Amino acid sequence: MSLDFEEPYFEVLTGPDCDEAKALHAYWLQHRLSEGGAEAILPKRDDISLPDLVALGCADRAFIMEPFGEDDWQYRLLGSEIVRYYGRDVTGIPFRQHMLECEAEIAIRISNEAAQTRKPVFLKMRFISGDHSGMIETMSLPILARDETTIWLFGATFFPESE
Question: In this structure, is residue 7 part of a structural domain?
Fold first, then answer.
């Protein structure tokens, strides 16, 4: 018996690629504030509204992540379409507890970079889970938590239309 495995695929993008991702990035950009030509201030958690995400057509694919402990992250909010594709709800579960170790390390490193640099991260990657497979596009956009000090990440994952 021979097993066929797809080659791993992971690409860091310079910006959003699909139309829905571009619209969500534009939404994030419109909430950034600038003070007299100074560096833009990150959007705040309270700037992100469910009615806006519904209007953009991505409420079910949106997420908000927060740092957990010294060196981990967890989803604070996870859209229903993400839950459906992954086959379970991992809201409130640290990455190191629900991902393979190598996946968790990469996800934590990318999340830390986005939070530390205060710059968005755009990714395209191969996705295989249960009955679902294909290329996905995802983004992590830094926002200020309600304490206006801690950096959280807001974004969405865009799944293939056909499987």
Answer: no
Judge whether residue 117 has pLDDT over 90.
yes
Give the separation between CA 58 and CA 19, rounded to whole angstroms: 11
Return the SS3 of 91: strand
Q: In this structure, what token pair is assigned to residue 65?
A: 């992540």
> Which one-letter amino acid corresponds to residue 29?
L
Q: Where would I find the H helices in 31-100?
A: 50-56, 80-86, 95-98
Q: How many domains does the chain have?
A: 1
DSSP structure class, residue 41 = B
Query: 130 is in which domain, residue-wise?
Result: 16-158
pLDDT at 162: 42
Q: Residue 5 — very low, low, confident or very high, per pLDDT cuts 50/70/90?
A: very low
Q: Which amino acid is at 21?
A: A
160 vs 6, which has greater pLDDT?
160
Tokens standing for residue 109:
């490193």
Helix, strand or coil, per DSSP, at residue 65? strand
